[in-house]
Design a protein that fits this description.
Largest sheet: 6 strands, antiparallel, barrel
Radius of gyration: 26 Å
Strand content: 35-45%
Number of domains: 5
Helix content: 10-25%
CATH topology of the largest domain: Pdz3 Domain
Strand order of the largest sheet: 1-2-3-6-5-4
Structural class: alpha+beta
CATH architecture of the largest domain: Roll
């Protein structure tokens, strides 16, 4: 019998007993009445919820704007240690812990404490910032309690949910609520997350990464405190999304970037008028479909307007790529498109984007050729396209590109991820070094 049915049986039995006793009041201290579905869920799942403590060594930043004597005297020369707290849940007998990516960040040391007080070291298996998910593995841990992921496919708005975590370091705190909404899009800094569940169960700092459970005690989501301005509002990543990411992180250590083999552009008012589209229509226009790619195989055509992806509305080309960034290789993506006067429902299977396609994309958008120089592990500009946004801002061969849109460039993988994040954008913030000077420059993308 499931926990929900057991709770219902308790309630029916209590009602029958009250009717049989007439006006005799029930004893409020009777544990038979107090042992609700929530109590049973917490008793069963609580032992698998963990407290995560991380430490990160932060090196002091040196400035080039002051003479060496003043810089060395006034600026700190020793690294400092930053600590953070979060939550997680053990998801298998091998000791894998599911949590948020922002909980572990760039941690040098990770410690995990179980509800029974046992403490273990943990290593990072992999993290995916696009989905704010990470997987840890407990070191030398035996016989740890765990809970297997459930399903979020049949979630219902209004159904009760239970969140367990360690808000503000208060271990194994429980909050309850209901599913308030599905497929929410939320913005945090310069990133937008799509497809989140909304709940009124309190999610606070330290609670992030803990499990969200239904009345049957099934793991249906991963709580996240990524929306800092929330008051009485919590968000969670659906467990069906998390399961795909967990598989990629455990088997590959990272989530490979995917594509559908198409290019999109925003629907400007002028473009709508030219194409005879309704003024209020929102979506992104397919400007190119690459031969042999997933989009071609799915039946998508140049001139189609993508209206919806995975039940999330598309308002711009950028919103399409934001959703695609959360996808995994081989995933079936549901799309709703407008073709002429008709609306069609199609499915496309994602594929890992070829390295050559990323290189071509970078050359086209940035209009710069970059070469990774060793041993500095920095990218140097070797050529700049005439008339490009980079040329207009004065970038020239010999300059160093240190970061793009806040992502530091120290490897080929860093550059590839930065380039993919430019899809659907019109401008990029680039950190350029020339000599001893560093400059933040916003360039127009080609």
């Amino acid at each position: 019998m499931t926990l929900a049915r057991r709770s219902l049986a308790f309630a029916l039995a209590a009602s029958t007993a009250w009717l049989a006793l007439g006006s005799v009041p029930a004893d409020a201290s009777d544990p038979f009445l107090r042992r609700t579905a929530t109590v049973l869920v917490v008793e069963n799942v609580g032992p698998a919820v963990v407290n995560i403590t991380t430490q990160q060594t932060i090196q002091p930043q040196r400035s080039n704007r002051r003479p060496s004597f003043f810089r060395d005297f006034f600026e700190p020369r020793l690294p400092r240690t930053a600590q953070s707290l979060g939550s997680g849940v053990v998801i298998d007998a091998e000791g894998h812990v599911l949590t948020n990516a922002h909980v572990v960040g760039q941690a040098d040391v990770i410690r995990v404490t179980l509800a029974d007080g046992r403490e273990f070291g943990a290593e990072l298996v992999g993290a995916d910032a696009n989905n704010d998910l990470a997987v840890l593995r407990l070191i030398e841990a035996e016989a740890v309690p765990w809970v297997s992921p459930g399903s979020s496919e049949d979630l219902m708005v209004g159904e009760p949910v239970i969140a367990i975590g360690n808000p503000f370091g208060l271990s194994n705190s429980v909050t309850t609520g209901v599913v308030s909404a599905l497929n929410r899009s939320i913005r945090n800094d310069d990133r937008v997350f799509h497809g989140f569940m909304q709940t009124d169960a309190s999610i606070n700092p330290g609670n992030s990464g803990g499990p969200l459970l239904n009345a049957d005690g099934e793991l249906i989501g991963v709580n996240t405190a990524i929306y800092q301005n929330a008051q009485g509002i919590g968000f969670a990543i659906p467990i069906d999304v998390a399961k795909r990411i967990v598989h990629e992180l455990i088997t590959k250590g990272a989530v490979a970037p995917v594509w559908l083999g198409l290019e999109l552009q925003d629907l400007s008012p002028q473009l709508k008028q030219t194409l005879g589209l309704p003024e209020r229509l929102q979506g992104a226009l397919i400007s190119r479909v690459r031969g042999g790619g997933p989009a071609k195989a799915s039946g998508l055509r140049r001139g189609d307007v993508i209206l919806e992806v995975e039940k999330s509305s598309i308002r711009s080309a950028r919103s399409f790529y934001e959703i695609l960034e959360r996808s995994t290789t081989g995933q079936e993506i549901a799309l709703r498109v407008r073709r002429g006067e008709a609306e069609l429902s199609l499915e496309a299977r994602t594929a890992e984007i070829p390295t050559a396609a990323i290189d071509r994309l970078g050359q086209r958008l940035l209009a710069m050729d970059l070469a990774l120089k060793d041993p500095e592990s920095r990218y140097q500009v070797s050529s700049v396209g005439q008339g490009s946004g980079a040329a207009a801002r004065g970038i020239q061969p010999g300059d160093w590109i240190l970061a793009i849109n806040g992502r530091a460039l120290a490897s080929e993988e860093d550059l590839r991820r930065a380039i993919l994040d430019l899809r659907g954008r019109t401008r990029a913030l680039v950190v350029v070094q020339r000599g001893r000077g560093r400059y933040h420059v916003t360039i127009r993308l080609s």
